[in-house]
Amino acid sequence: MPGPIEKDEIFRSVFEAIIRLEMQKGHLKWKVSEVARASKISRTLIYYYFGNSKQNMLSTAIDFLGIEYFGLSPERLLLWERGEVLASVLKSRALCQRAPYVAFFHMERRHLLDATGEKLRALEVEYRKKLQRFYPKSDQDDIEALAAVFFGLTTMPSLSEAGVKSALSIIQRNLTFKELKTEI
Prior knowledge:
The chain folds into 2 domains: 1-68, Arc Repressor Mutant, subunit A; 71-184, no CATH class. 71% of the residues lie in helices and 0% in strands. It is built from 10 helices and no strands.
């Protein structure tokens, strides 16, 4: 008999279901019962962790996107602090491999002039601040280029782990990282 499902797995499953249904059905045109069915999580737990309105649920899912896709959680920032950039990038890649529609959601919805678009653009700003923090000698154009490269490393499905490692090595050789002790 399987044990109880952990909070992280609940978040991951509900997040994936909400984002997939957003892409398939349209903005908030899905039902909570569909999220429950797709995620295999009870509506009670969905309401508990994600709120009681579809807008709150989507907002919480976007918060999770910031943690996992953009790597903005304290744990992920600590990986960068310790120079474990590869580990952080691989965690973001794992999300995109498990739920490839996440990148499409981000790119399609970031331009919207609503709460969803605003929240996604705010995550992008935080992501650039993260890059500026770890590449302090980089100018704004370098940061934009780094953001593009890191998003590519995260979302390109055919790129191997060795390819990710090689790209990070090239970045490290060409830009000054906060601490040059980074493990790649």
